[in-house]
């Protein structure tokens, strides 16, 4: 595709969901915006895919944290997003053959918790209170420029606050849970939730921060007393009908309705600069487009180390820090076409079998299981017993698979980007897929009888097809090393870069990855503040000087 013009107010490199969100807010403020996306569909990892003829899905499974403010502003419902709300929302198969279920009704979940861990229920609620209190004390909104770690630490006023800070930022989730709980099942469940911080293990310093995400999000907006984000052990608030692709499609439509132009199947090869400022981009077609502002939805490493036509604009110290930022992706995707309903081992009736098939599953039945899965990854081996997050959306939404068939979409950890030996070729992928299916069979009894087709994506595929650096699913881990003012690295956390007029708007900046839209929203807000009244030259990047 070719852009219709050679000059825009803003060009956005990459049409992931964050690029679409940023484009919407800029266009809503009257800017002429071009989004350049290398793939045939906008939406990045949320873009619709046809895995097999008639089976529709996406790389992502659920919008567990899509920001309600953005959903409303973009009128995504008007543009076709509706939700199915299975109940329970999540099933967590246990090591003893039973399973824990996260229900929409808090009381029902509490009853399940009492069966699972009768001595730990009060401690469980104390843990929720701990994270909600701690988020309040940090006083950080996900919509504000993130404070530095030093500023966060300074907000701690009492020895208790300081101890909490040290425990969350420097301690690990295994010790945190050992201090508070006795049930191995409940520890496994909460440890698995905190692994949302990235490619981490229960013993990783800072891993408790994974449980801080919902409390921080709650803190940042208007939350009702029964806001689902208060409910830690439940899954997504809903499954978009037609799959996550419907969110990407609605975002694209919302942006286009505001006049955004989206140029598909076109790569940005270079970000062009003149003096100290960005002036536009060169496309794979060879065309050059000029713009007052360039925003990048790509990993900050790609943006500043690979795409800039003048690398000398990045001060040495910053370039070194960015260069050494660890990515080391570990996510793998297994998609299965099924000719029957997957039956959970723990189901005690047909009704329950259907309920469990309809909701998300998380499989990592003990804390040790998670640690061992990560150990394999650490040493360059695909996990022998991987952590699994799966969903069969066709159970509640038959439109995503042919009649009588099902689509199971499994997010798998860990598949190290860099293997100790060999490469991510068809044989390695097939071998790891077989390991995943053996693991699924531990809790879905009939899985091997109902598979009719399968497709896999390795971290190397994610890098090649979506531009994810080393296949990292979040554009970088979200431990304290890579959160708040450290995301992606000090001096780059506030959306500006050392190149005037060049901004970061993807998951590599605060508040980080998953499908929230917030980095895109925050970056657009920053651009609008910096450029209102054509004051673009007033943009002063908060980057220390060279060296
Ligand atoms: C296997 C897997 C499963 C996941 N599951 C979930 C889930 O269920 N729920 C959830 O919330 N999150 C999930 N995530 C994480 C989530 O997908 C990401 O954090 C999020 O989609 C990142 O959004 P983004 O807009 O910042 O970037 P991206 O989605 O990475 O978009 C970047 C875009 O830039 C394009 N691009 C790259 N280079 C160029 C170039 N040179 N020129 C033009 N375009 C370019 C890419 O094609 C892409 O469209 C998952 C990730 C993976 C890998």
TrEMBL record:
Pfam families: Amino_oxidase (PF01593). It comes from the Bacteria. Residues 118-182 form the DDT domain. GO terms for molecular function: oxidoreductase activity. SUPFAM superfamilies: FAD/NAD(P)-binding domain. Interacts with COX5B; this interaction may contribute to localize PYROXD2 to the inner face of the inner mitochondrial membrane. PANTHER family: PHYTOENE DEHYDROGENASE, PYRIDINE NUCLEOTIDE-DISULFIDE OXIDOREDUCTASE DOMAIN-CONTAINING PROTEIN 2. Probable oxidoreductase that may play a role as regulator of mitochondrial function. This is Pyridine nucleotide-disulfide oxidoreductase domain-containing protein 2. It comes from Micromonospora olivasterospora.
